[in-house]
Specification:
Number of helices: 10
Order of helices and strands: EHEHEHEHEHEEHEEHEEHHH
Shape: globular
Radius of gyration: 19 Å
Strand content: 15-25%
Helix content: 25-40%
Largest sheet: 7 strands, parallel
CATH superfamily: NAD(P)-binding Rossmann-like Domain
CATH architecture: 3-Layer(aba) Sandwich
C-alpha cells in the first residue's frame, strides 16, 4: 500500500489532477492532499482522498502531511496577482523545504511541477530540458520556479532526492479561466505569434507517468501539445474579434516559451489526448 501526497490540490491544476489520480489509484492505496481550507478540502474527502489541513509554508504542517507518505507531487504554485514575497515563499522556499523534508522522510519519488517560463528567450529553437534557465530581471514567477528547480536538482545530486521535474506549457481546459486570461497576455502580440499550450488531461497523464516510471530520478521532462496556438486564435476561441488596425509587437524570438517534449514522449510514452486546442474544442473540453 502506498500513500501519495499532493500539494496545491485546490489550484487550477491540482483540482483537476487529484480526481484523476484518485481514479488511477489501486485499492488500498491513499491519495493525501494538503489544503489550507477545510471547506475546499471537503470535495476531495468526498472523492476518497485523505485531507490534511495545513500550509505548505509551515514546517510542522509539511511534516504532518509527509508522515508515512511514499510519494510526493508538488503542484502548489503562486502565480498571478500575488505579492512577490508570496511567490518566492511558495514557489521556491516551500518547494525546497518540502524537498528536504521529503528526503528525510524517505519518500520514493518526488515530482516537482514546473513551467516552460523557466527558459529564457533567444535560442532560436524550442527549449530543451538541459538548457540554461532565466536569471536577472525575469519575472518573479519564472525566477522563483527556476531557482526551485535548481535547488531540488542539487538535493538530488548531493543527497539522493528521488526527483522528477515536469515543466508545463500554458495549461488550459475543463473550464479553467486560463484561456480567457490569455487574452490580455497576447493583446500586444502580432497575430501569428504563438502561445504553447497543454490540456489538463495531458498534464495529469504526464504527472502520473513521472510519478510511476522507474529509473528516471534526476530527470526533467517538458510537457506541451503539438500545436502552439496563435494570438489571433486565442481571440477567436474566446469569441472576440481581432483588431487588425491595432499596433502590435512581434517577438524577438518566435520560439519563446515553446519547448521540446520529445523526451516525455520517447522515454515515458506520453501522447497528448488533445494534441491541439482545436481537438479540445471539438471534444467540448475547453
Amino acid at each position: 500500500m502506498t500513500t501519495t501526497l499532493v500539494t496545491g490540490a485546490t489550484g487550477q491544476v491540482g483540482r483537476r489532477f487529484v480526481p484523476r489520480l484518485l481514479q488511477w489509484t489501486e485499492p488500498g492505496d491513499t491519495v493525501r492532499v494538503l489544503v489550507r481550507d477545510a471547506e475546499r478540502g471537503a470535495r476531495f474527502a468526498e472523492l476518497g482522498a485523505e485531507v490534511v489541513l495545513g500550509d505548505l509554508r509551515d514546517e510542522t504542517d509539511r511534516a504532518k502531511a509527509l508522515a508515512g507518505a511514499d510519494r510526493v507531487i508538488n503542484v502548489a504554485a503562486a502565480f498571478r496577482n500575488v505579492p512577490d514575497t508570496e511567490a518566492w515563499a511558495v514557489n521556491r522556499d516551500a518547494a525546497l523545504a518540502l524537498g528536504r523534508q521529503a528526503l528525510d522522510a524517505g519518500v520514493g519519488r518526488f515530482v516537482q511541477t514546473s513551467t516552460n517560463l523557466v527558459y529564457p528567450a533567444g535560442r532560436g529553437r524550442p527549449s530543451r530540458e538541459g538548457d540554461r534557465l532565466v536569471t536577472g530581471d525575469a519575472m518573479v514567477y519564472s525566477l522563483s520556479k527556476a531557482q526551485a528547480d535548481t535547488g531540488l536538482l542539487a538535493l538530488h545530486a548531493e543527497h539522493g532526492l528521488p526527483l522528477v521535474i515536469v515543466r508545463l506549457a500554458y495549461v488550459y481546459g475543463e473550464g479553467d479561466p486560463h484561456l480567457r486570461e490569455a487574452v490580455p497576455r497576447v493583446a500586444e502580440w502580432t497575430a501569428h505569434r504563438r502561445l504553447p499550450m497543454v490540456h489538463h488531461a495531458d498534464v495529469a497523464q504526464a504527472l502520473r507517468r513521472a510519478l510511476l516510471a522507474p529509473g528516471v530520478e534526476g530527470r526533467i521532462f517538458n510537457a506541451a501539445d503539438d500545436a502552439p496556438v496563435s494570438a489571433f486564435d486565442v481571440y477567436r476561441l474566446n469569441g472576440l474579434a481581432w483588431d487588425e488596425t491595432a499596433a502590435r509587437e512581434d517577438a524577438p524570438d518566435p520560439w519563446f516559451g515553446i519547448t521540446d517534449s520529445q523526451s516525455l514522449r520517447d522515454e515515458l510514452g506520453w501522447r497528448p489526448q488533445y494534441p491541439s486546442i482545436w481537438t479540445a474544442r471539438d471534444a467540448g473540453v475547453l
